[in-house]
Amino acid sequence: MxxxxxxxxxxxxxxxxxxxxxxxxxxxxxxxxxxxxAEAQRDMRAAWQETLFKMAEYGPEVxxxxxxxxxxxxAKQLECVTVIASMGNQIDTLLKLxxxxxxxxxxxxxxxxxxxxxxxxxxxxxxxxxxxxxNLFGDNLLTAVREKLKELGEPSESFIEKLPWLRFDPNTxx
Length: 174
Hints:
The protein is an all-alpha fold. Helix content is 79%, strand content 0%.
């Protein structure tokens, strides 16, 4: 075997090594993205859970606010708005993570369904209108919620009826 043949073999095996390195790098990048997605989803689920705990803490106020927000005193209105704004901010973040490939469609769907169900109540729509005007949310959320509300139709208490723990009882404050 002469020197030229050895040079060609070296180039050939060098090319194979570079190709193998690129395949390994692609695999590592894919794994890294999956891990980042899982971490983002864990963080968002924890934040969502905290919002649900806050909703439970302010239960009577939220229950009453979903039915008749405009007749609540300002302190109770603030409690309702805090819960709804927090949910909206979390979904806004989910939508942004999805754009980067770090969130899945099913996670966005169920959080959006819960959020728009709550917003599409007589009091919830009032809260949404105030928040929508305040420019607190990104365009992704505004567009997604507007489309979903259009699909749901006129605000009603049907979501509250499906989830009895959201019903307000003025006699027991629960």
